[in-house]
Here is the input.
Amino acid sequence: MTDRQVPSVGIVGGGPWGRALATAARRTGAEVVLHSRRDQPGGLGAQLRSSERSPQASTADPGLHVTTDYAEVAKARLVVIAVPSSVARSVLRALGDHLGGQHLVVHGVRGLGVEGLETVSDLVREETPARRLGALGGPVQAGELIEGRPSAMVIGSRFPEVITAATRAFQGPSLRVYGTNDLRGLEWASALVGCLSIGVGYAEEAGAGPGLLAALISRGVDEAARLMAAAGCEERTMLGLGGYGDLLASIALEDRPEVVLGKALARKVPLDQAITMAKLRVEAIPLIPRIVRFAEEHRVDANTFGALSEILAGGRPQAMLDRMFTG
Amino acid sequence: MQDDAPIFGFNAAREDIVRTVVSRVVLSTKDPLLALNDAAYHETKRLEASKRGPEEQKELAEWQRLARALGRMPDGERREKLASIVEHVGWDVAGNFDPRVFKVSSKLLPPIVTYLLAPRTLVRLARDPKQLVSLSALDDKVRVEGPVEELRELSRQGTAVYVPTHLSNMDSIVFGYALERAVLPPATYGAGKNLFTNPVLSFFMHNLGAYRVDRRIRHNLYKDVLKTYSCVLLERGYHSLFFPGGTRSRSGGVERRLKLGLMGTAIEAYARTLMANRERRVYFVPATINYLITLEAETLIADFLAEAGKGRFIIEDDESSRVGRVTAFMRKMFDMQGAVVIRFGKPIDPFGNMVDERCRSFDRRGREVDPASYVKDESGRVTLDPVRDAQYTRELGDEICKAYLRDTVVLETHVVAAASFERLRRASPASDLFTVLRQRDVVVVPRDELAKDVVKLRDRLVELADRGEIVVGGFLRTASGGDIVERALRAFAGYHASPVLASRPEGLAIMDTNLLFYYQNRLAAHGMAWDVIAPPGMPPARPPVFAPPAARDAAQGGLS
Here is the structure.
């Protein structure tokens, strides 16, 4: 393989997810430019600085270049956004100064805007000149990418060349990348799975057996699919790896933030403490009541989401079961 | 008028254009057998079903003969056959553009109107073409709005694709007139062939539209020729006019879903100018054509209700083919100020970016973008990629639909229809559309109550307009409820065959529920009228959220 054929990937976000994606891309031989904010304590910049002093300095990897300059990231044609949704807009606005129509912009941000339920790719369209957009989804976790444990990821884009580029950048022996053209559907599915994972954690901790858990997941997926149809997405995207598959994985993922949060809530831990326990920002918390409102507006039955909303509001554990089985 | 617009050289270039189209289509047809079979199948089916004259009979026999022979034909002969059919279709599509005729016909609307009102004047006109009725006669009847100055400058810098909403067969004429009024160069237009055979409109159509589209022909080869033709015209800098709704809005509603086929040719055309090292940028101008009354309203809404979607694609016997109705319509138009409003929207590039008067593209944050960067591949080469371009065009379609909503101009008939229809719904709550529509001459609304409803609706529309989500014109903004109702009544009466709202001692009787439905539908996509016309798979529009009355009152200084 000549140097020219090596795909060049820019990743924005020095947190665990961005670092994991950078690792996965490096594993395929891609040359990676990673943007990390300097002032981020515990972020990759700090870690790399500390590892420079260690014998196994990762700076020995000439294929990974860490920068604080968005212009450097924009040298890659494929740019992957891996920042929390709360800062996505400001990051995109700054990054947008360096992007053009030639860029393929893919994001791996779970969540929807709480105001207008806008997707992150809607933000990309608003804040940057890029139009060839995509999103990452599916059950893959940061830990799996870093350790190279086999897993699966979904890339959604209406542009085949984006799917091709993302697949080329990330697919390897330990990571299978599936493509879908329902970008919006994948973004909605990821966000709704985030909400439902809280329910899974909650039910598990509250002692739900396999039957109840299966009922919760199936009904939740069904509601999510109908919500997505009302939002103009394809229902079946929710039934695939980016929806159902992603949610199934949360059964076994004890340390998934949403699951941790759900479990804490089942133990009657107050919400603010439960959020601290989840460590990472849980994008689903403000989203759940908004989804319930969306369901009402569009006359979609969404009892599972209604129950989740009550739990977040401090409702009793029984409330969830009642809501689920009376709807 | 800009006499240097490319269309004035059209006739000289026509042969060259058709040859380019034919060779491109022939070369890009990978499987001539499939293409010819498809064409023979669709043409045989069409001709068998149609009323056949001797000409069609001959055509049918030829297609049948071809279909039988195709299987045994050697490949070389198939290619030849393909080329000859494509050439035939190509010349059929290519129209005329005669600048002399254009000069007359662009100023044709007033004399034609005169003719319709008083046929004998045409005889005088033929003797002395200088005796044209002055265009200014229409000035206050037809309003042209929007960033006209900017568009004028822009038309010298790049190639325009005008994409207006579509309600009536009058649209192409009215829009052509609007271009003339705005001192914008004329645009080529793919006029439906049925308009050329329509006894009234053919008079306008010949020599106006640069090409003919026969929507009865359904085979792929024909579609390929049309698209390629449109692409070649844009590539050569001919400004174009498409109605992306594809067909006249049956419901009266603003288009929410577009046919993207022809629009999609713009990106290919632009990419080809880049590949030939003579970049010429293409920009889209969304526009709305708003009528106080629609010429074909009765037929269109009947068609919408009869088929509730399936739609006859071509209606050949509607009001636009009856001289009497066109005359009545024109009379009404002459009678009322601002009866037609054409509103040009802000220009955008094929990738949804804003465009300034020098044809530079800017993203939503105001950064300049090179449009060429959207059609380049990994290695920075400009490529033709139909799948990629189809997606850009899809997103462009969404942008255009948003522009339609913003640039919809609310007229009195829409508001009065929406208020009346709301009364109908309240008279039979929780009913389906057809039950509501059946209440003809059942509901009578006292005039002052209807006026009050109208004012309430108008105030919300004005609020929406102040947010830039719709346009409310001067009269409607300030008039009293009674005056608005009066003006709508005057517009309805004298054109529509049966009374829409009938005056009774106790108030206004709601008579033609279908027409009220038709006119209220103009506000449906904004959520300002009952939305039962959302395209399949799209949730109905919901009423916009307005600031709570308390906050509004406070903002107005506590007026109450």
Observations:
- Residues 264 and 393 of chain B are 6 Å apart (CA to CA).
